[in-house]
Write a structure and sequence with these properties.
- It contains three helices and twelve strands.
- By secondary structure, the chain is α+β, with helices and mostly antiparallel strands.
- The protein has an eight-stranded antiparallel β-sheet.
- It has a domain of 155 residues.
- 22% of the residues lie in helices and 23% in strands.
């Protein structure tokens, strides 16, 4: 039975909840579970989430990249410090003409190939360099000029000339019936060597037309039947017996099989006879 009191009917056994304590749950009923909002539970205070946690992998990658860059710059600085003085010294101290090549790229090479020496002009007939070939106008004149003070003039008994050397027979001043021999090679006169007696007239080297030599050598090469390789020499002959003139120049051409012959030439350069 309810009991009436100042606050209304009172049922025995009922739990009285103090005012202000919230919702009253009847005895025997559990508290209803709290329903989450449709957008999910709120963030837990103090906890890291996928959006708020800093990426340690990205941090480590950035640190490594910075370290590599610093190391590369330091390496280049060391190389430049080490090699720059040597490069500047090799270029005479002018930094404009130096370059530092740290790789093997052939397109960065700065050296130029050395110029090859130019060939010396040679005589077409003998193949010898013109500067050393005695069978040329210049070669003959130079040799005669060097012989003259040694032998006492330009008159000789006989003379034989090859492309690189020559021999000349010269009468003795104190005994005109005999001659001594001198040799000429590489611009130098050597001798005398004892010769023999002679009974031929002397011949003057200054009376010959040495400018005719190139054409005479070409004619000897083409007309005397010798085949390459061809060798040449000439003899200044004071007493030739088989031509109208006695004092002549004999221009020879021959090969390794003894084929060839000689031209009989006047001191003026005219061909008097072809012997082959």
């Amino acid at each position: 039975m309810p009991q009436h009191g100042p606050g209304g009917p009172h049922f025995p056994g009922a739990h009285t909840v103090p005012p202000g304590s919230g919702q009253t749950v009847p005895p025997g009923y559990a508290k209803a579970p709290q329903q989450q909002p449709p957008w999910g539970a709120g963030p837990i205070p103090g906890a890291d989430t996928a959006n708020t946690r800093p990426s340690t992998r990205a941090g480590r990658g950035a640190a490594v990249a910075v370290s590599v860059s610093v190391a590369a710059v330091a390496a280049v600085a060391v190389l430049v410090w080490q090699f720059l003085p040597t490069i500047i010294d090799a270029s005479g101290g002018d930094p404009r003409i130096t370059s530092l090549n740290l790789g093997n790229d052939p397109t960065t090479a700065t050296s130029e190939p050395a110029d090859e020496p130019a060939d010396q002009p040679g005589d077409d007939a003998t193949g010898e360099p013109a500067a050393k070939n005695l069978l040329t106008p210049a070669g003959m004149r130079d040799m005669i000029a060097k012989l003259k003070p040694v032998i006492g003039g330009t008159k000789v008994v006989k003379m034989t000339v090859h492309p690189t050397h020559a021999s000349v027979d010269v009468p003795r001043k104190d005994d005109p019936e005999v001659y001594d021999s001198y040799d000429y090679r590489d611009g130098t006169v050597t001798g005398p060597r004892s010769g023999s007696t002679f009974d031929t007239p002397l011949i003057d080297l200054a009376t010959f037309n040495w400018d005719a030599l190139p054409s005479l050598l070409k004619k000897a090469k083409s007309d005397l039947g010798a085949r390459a390789p061809i060798s040449h020499h000439m003899i200044v002959e004071p007493d030739y017996s088989f031509a109208s003139m006695k004092q002549v120049l004999l221009v020879y051409a021959s090969d390794t099989y003894s084929r060839g012959g000689y031209l009989v030439v006047s001191p003026q350069g005219k061909v008097l006879k072809v012997v082959s």
